[in-house]
Amino acid sequence: MQSFILNLHQAMVWVILAVAGITLICGIVLFFLARNNAASLGNVQRIFRILLSITAALGVLQAIFGGLLFLQGGRPGEGLHYVYGLIVLGAIPVAYVYSDQKQVRRDIIIMVIAVVAVIGAAIRALATGAP
User: Fold this and answer.
1) 56: burial class by Cβ within 10 Å (0-12, 13-18, 19+)?
2) pTM of whole model > 0.85?
3) Can you give the residue ranges of every domain in the chain?
4) Which tens digits make up the pLDDT trace of 5-33?
């Protein structure tokens, strides 16, 4: 059972990186659209929010897999793996708390920075996870 969860945990990193990459691109596009024409943001803004939610949900799922591995005695190669995992788990929710949902461009910047943090932390977690 542990090897199955470990395989899921390892595969999930690539899913998180792919979805976060798409989210990042969408956020950058949204940022430039917001600069030029705030009226045409509707669909792109909705897609960006959905992608942010999916990225955050994948972080939660990844944390659950990591927690199950920990409970079964699995340990990462380096202790920093836990820190990077917490960043993947919490970057988007924390950024959402700091966004006020009123200043569109500011909120986009905050959320894009959170997605960049997720991508960076996921890459580092991948590097520190193997024993």
Assistant:
1) buried
2) yes
3) 2-129
4) 999 999 999 999 999 999 999 999 999 88
